[in-house]
Amino acid sequence: MADALIRRAEKESISRTDWAEQIELADQLEGLNPAQLREMVEILLKQDGMPGEIRVRLTIDLLQRLAKDVPQEALALMMELEPRLPEDFYRLHFTEELAGIASRFGEQSPDVAWEWYLGIRAGRPEDFNQIRQGVLGGIAKRDPARALRLADESSGEGAAIYILRHYCTTLDQRVAALKALRTWSGDDAGRKEKLDDFIQKQTMKSHVEGEKVRFKDVMSWIQQAGLTMEELSFLGDRSKVDLSYSIDPRDTGKLIEWLDLTFPEKQSTQQIKRLVQDWRTRDAVKAWLATLPPERATALEKRLAEE
Fold it and tell me: What is the residue-wise DSSP string for 185-227?
């Protein structure tokens, strides 16, 4: 079936614009082996009548399938084909995908991937930063301490922190990254600031793009990361974090309870006042206060009214 699909693609124009048909074609690519995937990419590059967006989507789909098993081969093919790309739109998406596949390569084969990067960087000054970040990001998922060291050697501290934040996304990866950063920062004041910034951003990190932070995720991170009171102190400081902006309003009551139990009264009161007053959270606070025993709600309201 795979060979038949390739032969059909050679004989017929695949410039169809119907999305359902394009998805059907992409599904048929599932059974292609690396050599056949490579052949299909070559065919797509010759399809001048196909709209650019569709051609890019199908080509990237082919490369992603190839990269699942042999990311190094997918990268080699991309490097070979790039000079022949037919348009700027195509080239832009290719470069983005190159970094993504480089990340997969770095995760699967850290040593080989880094040697590959060192071998090609001189010839790609225009986008080698993206490729380096991709390889280091993949390495960081398995060994953040090593990624930090390599990033320091090749690009500097700023890039190292960015790579850990961007690529270490699961809870286990984030905790491992924090452990590596604690060792990396040592007694250096400048690095300690970067460590603190990493902690703050990870603590208030939403796991769903475009949505607010859930309280349970904050607590899970704090517990798994073993954050100290010193490291958590920013949560009691209105000048360092705007909790009303970050927290999901549904969790405002739980957050207030935790702030009250965790920080000295003066600190917690300032943050709670912000949650009470801010338009994003005040309705949720009112609803939560209504669930409290009357005497407790009254005492809290009186405390918040005091200067």
Answer: HTT-HHHHHHHHHHHHHHHT--SSTTSPBPHHHHHHHHHHHT-
